[in-house]
DNA sequence: TCTGGGGTCCTAGGACCC
DNA sequence: TCTGGGGTCCTAGGACCC
């Protein structure tokens, strides 16, 4: 059996832990740039405000109901997530951290061997919920079922139906069949908007209907092997196992960093400063998980909501690093700036930029070396005669950078390229405020990660 | 006026390998 | 006249997840 633990409106719950006066009030948390509603308290859901609603569209409604509005505070949510995962890891043989607020639990064997001591799996699930709530303040629900897809479905019902008291255990085929009938096809894990529309057009409305389509049909209409697996999993046949997260942290196969800008940017130097900042952050994460990357992608996007802008809204460029895998920000940046140059169209207004690091590998024995001396980076070629940029990594420099920023705060020491060029018109902000930076008007304190923000109790 | 960010997995054509 | 089969890697893009 698999368990799925999922926090209830996680970001809102994190805010409430440290500011209990919001316990009974309507609360929302907004995305970066205060753009969209990404977490809603039950009171807000009852108002009919959907997940992902643009804030400007629901602002008045929220105000009318005296809702509290927060900008997102990832320092807080990340740290609360780690606490929740730590609690869970202490009580189950293995878990897979699936997202910031969800984890799959490996419960195989427990039902045969341990239940005489621990009670049924649904009792164990209740114990987990109570433990997490007591130690972190975060409310959760738990689904238990023979496949991950059914565990997700069970979790959804556990959240929806108060009479289940936060736990649903789909131990028999009768209970599974019942659960499948309760869930709309669009709410099944792996069925997004496009597939949902296609399925309802074909007369497939519930998870139960979907569980009865043929494998061939699923393959043809639901993205090949992915669709075939999905249907089998609904039938109770596990197609995917648990990928345990070692020591409670997540090792990623790709690392990215991107932002929508606070305002549209047309100056190359401003966008370069943004890309350099995002790349620095991504490289920092890469070093934190002790990996090297050998594939780099840069992308820039136009405003897809502007009716005057035609698709494609986004262009990307990917490069397999000729000088081999690295985690050195300066090496990565010299390639990133040449990719950005390739994508750049003068006179275009850009809305967002991002970088992705792929092809991650651990340093050491397995590493691919170059046969000859590393080929020069684009920056070296362009700047021939100027100061050299190394193609070989300088681990000691990066380690010092990370140590300083860890101790004195993110961005204390950074590459000069991350600084936006001074603008003639731009007396608006202080020089330390980059052109691309967005809004975050209502951010709560970093209660768990900044000494100055520590809650004081009299 | 105002519309997020960080991921996973899959597809598909072309270059290239033996 | 006639021109293979089984792979990997690279790059770009799409669907989906939370």
TrEMBL record:
Give the matching InterPro entries. DNA/RNA_pol_sf, DNA_pol_Y-fam_lit_finger_sf, DNA_pol_Y-fam_little_finger, DNA_polymerase-Y, DUF4113, Rev_trsase/Diguanyl_cyclase, UmuC
Keyword Transmembrane helix on entry: no
A single cellular component GO annotation: cytosol
Locations of Polar residues compositional bias? Answer: 419-430
Q: Where is this region: Disordered?
A: 419-441
The family annotation for this protein states: Belongs to the DNA polymerase type-Y family.
The name under which this protein is listed is Y-family DNA polymerase
